[in-house]
Amino acid sequence: MAKGVFITGTDTGVGKTIISAGLALALRKRGIRVGVMKPIATGCIGDGRLVSTDAVYLFEAAENEYAPLTSPIRFRNPVAPSIASVYEQKEIDLNQIRKAYLKLQKLYDFIIVEGIGGILVPIKKNFLVANLIREMGLPIIIVSHVSLGAINHTLLTVDSALIRGFPIKGIIFNRAPLVNYSLAELTNPRVIHELTGIPVLGSLPEMEDVDVDRCRYGNLKVIFEERINVDAVLK
Question: Which CATH entry fits the domain spanning 5-234: 3.40.50.300, 3.90.660.20, 3.40.50.2300, 1.20.58.480?
């Protein structure tokens, strides 16, 4: 199994990029050479060459040197890759992803791959994110929200991963309120751990000084190290 993790989520917009970047910052502080990858990005910006703000955020956090390897496939429309490919008339070359991943493995000690959406998002016909996870051979970290619905969303993701035999490093909850939290937000992480037996690696609060689109990290590294069990990720 390759050294690294695949960051997936219970949904889109749960904060996979923040978690991936935070992990890269924390590992770099430990002297680990970290390679990052967003194999497929949709919702990219730019008039000519498309740019993924998520991929840029990861690239800068890890201080990588080879941008094309970080973000090999990019689309403008913020939809599933299989749909974006049809509407933008651009074929998804899976070999391009595979080659970029193999090069990153040779260049860095630990690879962080951020998926798109959840593990059942279609990349091509008969090829889901789950197929990409299997090919890369990486254990996964599941990123979830803590609000109402988190139990169902997280259990569905865990169940889907376990059915496929994917090793799960743990679950990280994002945007957990520090004050004025609801009963669901207070109890969901514990209930999810009890129901799944999957380790909860920690939770991150909403951070006003962190902004992916503006490439701002604020106190992400410090808070990530304080609130996330990085040692468990490296085991």
Answer: 3.40.50.300
